[in-house]
Amino acid sequence: MERTHTTTAAMKHVFRGTFIHSTQQTPVEILEDALLGVNADGKVAFIAKPEELNKLSETFGFTPAEVTHLAQHEFFMPGMVDTHIHAPQYSYAGTALDMPLLQWLNTYTFPAESRFKSLDIANEVYTQVVKRTLRNGTTTACYFATIHTDASLLLAQITNDFGQRALVGKVCMDKNSSLKHYKETMQESQEETCRFISELLNKKYPLVKPVVTPRYALSCTGALLGQLGAIAKNNHLHIQSHISENLDEVKLVKELFPECTSYTDVYHKHNLLTDKTVMAHGCHLTDEELDLFRETGASLSHCPNSNISLCSGLLNVRNVLNHKVKLGLGTDIAGGYSASILDAVRKTLDVSKVLTILEPENDVLTFEEVFRLATLGGSQALSIDDHTGNFVVGKDFDALRVNAAAPGGPIDIIDCEGPKVLLEKFLNLGDDRNILEVFVAGRRVVPFTYQVV
Ligand SMILES: [Zn+2]
Q1: Is this model's pTM higher than 0.85 or not?
Q2: What are the Amidohydrolase-related domain coordinates in residue numbering (predicted)?
Q3: Regions of the chain short of the pLDDT cut 70
């Protein structure tokens, strides 16, 4: 007998079927015909073999009839982590991909983001981006908002309402020569960051936290970078920014910060490189800079769609991993045009193969490794892997229920395929039609239950 969304006092859900996830040791581990229980706190209570059903039902207080059985071609995988996405830029995602970074920011980004002074615009766009990313299987997102504190707080509220796990950053920038009204003074930026942090923490959202967000070295004075480093340190907060995305940018940073030995050193000198820092891109980092990332525990967000779309560069992920630097995947909406981490998975594999075409000794990434980067790797990059990222007893149940053969979907199953083939097909060919349900901390958030009033 099948029943969905079991609710008992003790257990929120008990599932029986295939579970696919990553561990530190194994990029793809497949648990076939397993039982997994999710307790009332949304955490994985047990993972066991079906023979243990009777004993488990007694211990955890559920009846065998309450078990939800996955159908053929279905499996659970961990929710995907988008380690770098600009929520306001979703308004023009899929357009404006015709110029390099610095011109792109001045021509498209700053004018678009300046409109988020309006809470009506913010509400409309932020609701759409949260819904779209959740439908695409992003259970955790690390968002840039804009310089506007109240609109940034609204983004945090919307992610909380829809049940997405998120880090949300009010963008800080006290330099902008192209659009004079889209910047703050250093004092405004500092005060508004403190207001943003305290108001967001006061909401006590269980899954949504603030992240200190200097836009990047070219948009901030050294004084502001130093203030933000201190704020993050004093409040033990996450930090996000951009680094070494494009060669013109790298050159300008070198000119503006002559006292620093490298772009990475600019952030390091301002206390912005910690084990809770995630930096987007890093296409042009030197090996010495990667060493500094490893020493500080800072991580990289690899955004291959954006790197290609803006002709920024090709990050050698293999080299980053060889340096033991943590790395997750990002969409970088709207420099990247797709709001799906599945697209980031494919573009990561493409870039790795292009590097191998250019340099045959490059050790190409496997789809299993990139699956790990999209899930556990992203959690590690955001330093939240102690409570999410894979199926381990005691961790939150952040999961996608995937049907590789969903009717009307993009995948044809020709033969009766094993679970690893179903995973590979889903990663390469799948989309939101294959994602039947999305769970965050044990709560089913897709199909949507939250209604905007
Ligand atoms: Zn970005």
Answers
A1: yes
A2: 76-445
A3: 1-9, 452-453
